[in-house]
């Protein structure tokens, strides 16, 4: 390995600035991406005026990498404890991810309830790690964007996370996935792969850099959550379907939903909002207090201090997710979700036989989906009478 030269005196050197060490690459070999080495602490101190602007940019990247790694782990923890799709097996062969779905219920008593229960994600112990990770996040990219909104706002946004000047939610078509997905639904029944439609974040930093943050990229074979946006586009040949403002998935403004059952659709949205509330309301207050009023303080400190803080946070989060699931299935929470769904359907979903429905036309239901989702948010804010 060739020796490195001290940035100050040009002697052989092997030590890098610990403050920016480990920052992700943005533009290999150009400007701020050039490694800076020192032969001694005195040379490092003498060179600080030349290095500090580069160091500042690299520290921003390093903090971004820390934030996105935590955000990915947050949503993975939710998915591990609260999955609806069970797979009996997963393996990758010839650029195809084969997922064999686990049947629900029994042939005599199949589970056809619209309100599926959360289950613990599991895979056979000999499953390839990438295949298992892809199965965990398969078809859940939009769900991840929904659950991560409050956390991403705390860790990334200006005046809060102080990293990004803009965050956008992108729905893209992945043209060059590392693998496509085939589902085995039963004996002799294999579903051909669909085009991979996928949600992710586009992040614009204060220093002008543009990054792709994809917490569920393992779905198509890219488990690393962070890379430059240009690299993401080049690697995946992603075609943009449409772009949404930050928070659109959370607030229910996404377009193009097509559901056959209005009640089950509204119930699902109510359920998602309710589970999110149980996950975050109490826990985020506790974490904010623990870190001096700003959750993004979690990202600070030396590499060792950060890893220790991250481990503690994720352990606490794991316990919190399990607690939230227990509360979610309490009689009180389930009754409230049923009541809120009925309120929403009664107030905002026209009966097929009423005059309003006739005025809209018989095919208005798919077009009305965004309004229903916004209506759910309004109904969720209506206090229910206390249960006896």
Protein architecture, described:
The protein is of the alpha+beta class. It has eleven helices and 13 strands. The protein has three domains: 4-55, no CATH class; 64-250, no CATH class; 262-380, no CATH class. Helix content is 43%, strand content 17%. Helix 2 (48-81) runs antiparallel to helix 4 (141-156). The longest helix has 34 residues, at 48-81. It starts with a strand and ends in an 8-residue tail after the last helix.
How would the global form be characterised?
globular
What is the number of helical segments per DSSP (H or I, 4+ residues)?
A: 11
* SSE series: EEEEHHEEHHEEEEEEHEHHHHHH
Number of strands: 13
What is the share of helical residues? 40-55%
Stretches with pLDDT under 50, minimum 5 residues: 106-114, 253-261, 352-369
- Count up the domains: 3
- Which strand order spans the largest sheet, edge to edge or round the barrel? 12-11-10-7-13
Instruction: Report mean pLDDT, rounded to a whole number.
Output: 81
What structural category arises from helix and sheet content? alpha+beta
Structural features:
388 residues, globular, 3 domains, five-stranded antiparallel β-sheet, alpha+beta
Would you kindly provide a brief summary of this structure?
By secondary structure, the chain is an alpha+beta fold.
Q: What is the topology?
A:
Layout: E1 4-5, E2 12-13, E3 15-16, E4 37-38, H1 41-46, H2 48-81, E5 87-93, E6 96-101, H3 129-137, H4 141-156, E7 164-174, E8 180-186, E9 189-191, E10 196-205, E11 210-213, E12 226-228, H5 229-236, E13 239-245, H6 248-251, H7 262-290, H8 303-328, H9 331-348, H10 355-360, H11 369-380
Parallel strand pairs: 6-8
Antiparallel strand pairs: 1-2, 3-4, 5-6, 7-10, 7-13, 8-9, 10-11, 11-12
Helix pairs in contact: 2-4, 2-8, 7-8, 7-9, 7-11, 9-11
């Amino acid at each position: 390995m060739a020796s490195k030269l001290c940035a100050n005196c040009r002697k052989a050197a092997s030590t890098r600035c610990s403050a920016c060490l480990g920052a992700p690459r943005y533009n290999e070999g150009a400007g701020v991406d050039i490694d800076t080495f020192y032969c001694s602490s005195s040379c490092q101190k003498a060179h600080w005026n030349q290095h500090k602007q580069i160091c500042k940019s690299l520290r921003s990247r390093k903090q971004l990498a820390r934030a996105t790694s935590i955000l990915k782990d947050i949503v993975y923890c939710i998915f591990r404890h609260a999955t609806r799709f069970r797979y009996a097996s997963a393996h990758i062969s010839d650029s195809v991810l084969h997922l064999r779905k686990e049947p629900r219920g029994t042939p005599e008593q199949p589970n056809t309830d619209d309100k599926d229960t959360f289950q613990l994600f599991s895979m056979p112990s000999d499953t390839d790690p990438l295949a298992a990770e892809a199965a965990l996040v398969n078809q859940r990219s939009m769900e991840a964007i929904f659950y991560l909104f409050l956390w991403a706002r705390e860790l990334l946004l200006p005046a809060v996370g102080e990293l990004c000047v803009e965050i956008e939610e992108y729905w893209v078509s992945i043209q060059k996935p590392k693998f496509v997905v085939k589902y085995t639904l039963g004996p002799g029944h294999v579903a051909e792969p669909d085009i991979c439609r996928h949600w992710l974040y586009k992040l614009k930093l204060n220093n002008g850099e543009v990054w792709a943050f994809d917490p569920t990229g393992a779905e198509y074979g890219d488990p690393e959550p962070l890379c430059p946006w240009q690299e993401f586009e080049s690697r995946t040949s992603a075609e943009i379907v449409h772009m949404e403002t930050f928070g659109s998935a959370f607030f229910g403004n996404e377009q193009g939903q097509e559901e056959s059952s209005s009640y089950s659709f509204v119930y699902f949205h109510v359920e998602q909002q309710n589970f999110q509330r149980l996950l975050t309301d109490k826990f985020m207050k506790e974490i904010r207090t623990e870190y001096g009023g700003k959750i993004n303080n979690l990202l600070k400190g030396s590499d060792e201090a950060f890893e220790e803080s991250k481990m503690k946070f994720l352990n606490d989060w794991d316990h919190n997710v399990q607690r939230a699931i227990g509360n979610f299935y309490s009689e009180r929470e389930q009754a409230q979700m049923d009541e809120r769904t009925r309120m929403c359907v009664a107030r905002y979903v026209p009966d097929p036989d009423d005059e309003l429905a006739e005025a809209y036309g018989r095919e208005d239901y798919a077009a009305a989906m965004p309004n229903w989702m916004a209506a759910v948010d309004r109904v969720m804010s209506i206090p229910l009478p206390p249960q006896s």
